[in-house]
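Researcher: I'd like a structural prediction for the single chain below. Treat it as a standalone chain; there are no partners to consider.
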Amino acid sequence: MNDLMEKIVSLAKRRGFIFPGSEIYGGLANSWDYGPLGVQLKKNITDEWWKIFVERRSDMYGIDPAIIMNPKVWEASGHVAEFSDPLVECKSCHQRFRADQLEGACPNCDGTEFSEAKNFNLLFKTFIGPLEDSSTTAYLRGELAQAMFVDYPQIIQTMRPALPFGIAAQGKVFRNEITPGNFIFRTREFNLMEFEYFVAESDWEKYFEYWREKMHDWLTHLGVTPAHVHEHEIPDGERAHYSKRTIDFEYDYPFGQKELYGLAYRTDFDLARHTKATGNDWGALPHVIEPTFGVDRSVLVTLLEAYHEEEVEGETRVVLRFPKWLAPVHVAVLPLSKKDELAKPTQEIAASLQSHFRVEYDETQSIGKRYRRQDEIGTPYCITVDFETLNDKKVTVRDRDTMQQERVDISLLADYLSDKLRS
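Model: Treating it as a single chain, here is the predicted structure.
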């Protein structure tokens, strides 16, 4: 694993962002649990995305669809027949790999002989009820999109939208694929944010470009350096079966330039398949632009972008420079001493700020070590309550990025922090 990735994985585990799944039983390959800071970081991303792309728009309608749908949905969409990866097996160690991602020798044993590639369906099968046979087969959803397509007539009926409009969803999807590791980059269960934007066929190119630009704006808002993002036009023969045009937004990960997000023009493929399969007449079918945002990859990229090391007084300071809105903790409130005469007023200040900001109270170890700990988790501001506070009713506010300190009146603290966190 790349040195930077090793540092990110180590920090994520040590500071409560992301843990190996079921670790006490030896774990499970490419299974990860989000810890207290990681789940907050992920929630900050999904909440902000929802505000920007759903709540603040009059042309977007959100849904929260079921994970298990009628299996006929996946038959009609083509996923049962065509949602697959080409796999090869190493003849030496019998490990299986995606043929399109294998370069040269076997990464497990350095063997050079492989079986012929065979397609392997990515849908996770499950069963409904006590019997396990073909009559009770169902699937965990392999994408969010199909729920938005099958809910299309209900949205038309209940919300009465005019073109163009979108249906948006967030949630977990499942793909039974061979994963190459690389932390949370590719896992069998992962989170997506996406919407299907319904347009007149004649307008598809205009809205494809519109959402292309909006996706770049979102990445900038997330704190991603534009030079680290590249567009890759997927050529004919390599696109998904439903797509007429697809652009992958790729990122410069430590392990190479790989996919982050996707933008696809799905034509009216899905709506047409579902109207045909159900025998329903939904009238003239619009065409669809689909921007897809990977949540877990967003988390990984924000960690990679935020991670910095710098020399401070002969020591290495590790700091996560998240955009302030994104930081899992906004403010750390720290008493200079654990003595009751400081701890009690410090706890009162923390409690008063908690209704406005994400706050952490910390009284263990030296103040310097506590600053470093907050730097490592990306906390923008630290408030220190010292013995002078008891007399002048002021606290010291330390800035994460500059490490500069300022004395602020306790009565002005909430407004001061609000202004700083908006900047």
